[in-house]
Amino acid sequence: MSQIVHSVTGDQVIEEADGALELRLFRVMIISVISAVVISAALAPWRVTFGLMLGGGLSLLNYYWLRTSVSAIFNIDHAVDRPRVRISRYFLRYLLVGIVVFAANELRLGSLAATIAGLCAFVPALFVEASRLFYFAIFHREESH
Predict the structure, then answer these.
(1) Torsion sign (Cα): 21, 38, 116, 68
(2) pLDDT of 9-39, one tens digit each?
(3) Which end of the chain has the least Cβ crowding within 10 Å, N or C?
(4) How open is the CA angle 127-30-52, to the nearest 5 degrees?
C-alpha cells in the first residue's frame, strides 16, 4: 500500500484549459465522420457514402452552432444586456437540419439510414472521451474529488 499515490488532497489534479473538452469532442467527431466516409466509399454504394457525408456534415455544423449559441448565452452580462438568443434559434437549427435531410431523401441523393448514422457522429466522440477519462481515472489515478 505504500506504493499507491496519495491523491486525497487533489494536488495532482490537472486543470484543463477552457474549451479543451469541446475541442477534443469536435476533433473526434471529424475523425469519425471522415473514417466512416472513407470506409463507406470503399465498401458501400454511393448513396450510403453521400448519406454519411451529409449526416456527418450536418452533425458537425449542429454541434458548432450549439456550442457557439450556448457560449454566447453564458457570456452575456444580464445586468447590462438582455439575452438576444431566443428559443426560436434552437428550433430554427433543427428545422434547417430536418429540411436538408428531407430534401436529400426526397431527391434520393442519399440513404436515409446512412444520413441518420452520420448525424450520430457525437456518439463515438462521447465513447472516446469516456474511455479516455476511464483510462486516466483507473490507471493514472487522476480522478477529481
Answers:
(1) positive
(2) 544 445 566 678 889 999 999 999 999 999 9
(3) N
(4) 95
